Amino acid sequence: MQQAVVFDVGRVLFQWRMAALFEKLIDDPEELAWFIANVVTEEWHFEHDRGRALADMVRERIALFPQYESHIRAYATRFNETVPGPVEGSHELVERLAESRVPLFCLTNFGDEFWQMFRPTQPIFDHFEDIIVSGVEKVAKPESRIYEIVEARSGRSGAALFFTDDNPDNIAAARLRGWNAHLFTDAAGLEAALVEAGLL
Predict the structure, then answer these.
(1) Are residues 52 and 76 in the same domain?
(2) What is the pTM of this model?
(3) Angle between helices 187-196 and 90-99 (to 10 degrees)
(4) 43 and 91 assigned to the same domain
(5) How many domains does the chain have?
(6) pLDDT beyond 90 at 1
(7) Hey, how many other C-beta atoms are within 10 angstroms of the C-beta on 155?
(8) What is the per-residue pLDDT across 67-80, written as a single tens digit (0 to 9) for each?
(9) Helix axes 168-176, 144-154, angle to 10 degrees
């Protein structure tokens, strides 16, 4: 069976930076840093990736930080602004793999509601046979269950899957299942790994 390539989305295909939105709303750099570290944090955001309803999260956060109600609501409605653009070089690799008819999949920690907002804006995803989204499945990397879902939906397992992700924990979990896993740092490194694997 032909080896498939499984891409992470955030910080592999697309830049992701919470401050990209909130620096538009908070002028003071110290306040912005405090806000990102304490109010709308990546750790809190991850709850939505794991399947928690956005409305519940927003309501609870506003109760904790009522002075930032408008900012917290902006997080819910303007999430796409936390994605400044593609990671340099990554989309070109997707295009080359697609031209070579390499099967492509995504495995992403992404909230369901945010994914519904983001996916329609990005035609690059049209190249992928399937996209496994943690918020939809209500299980997130690096939990083994979400890797099992990829195996079931792709019809592949072990070395038939080449996976790239920027998080070492997610890579370690894939390697435990026998996947060929590459820790993403930049497109050049990924290109070299794909060439070595015979995929480019």
Answers:
(1) yes
(2) 0.96
(3) 30
(4) no
(5) 2
(6) no
(7) 11
(8) 999 999 999 999 99
(9) 60
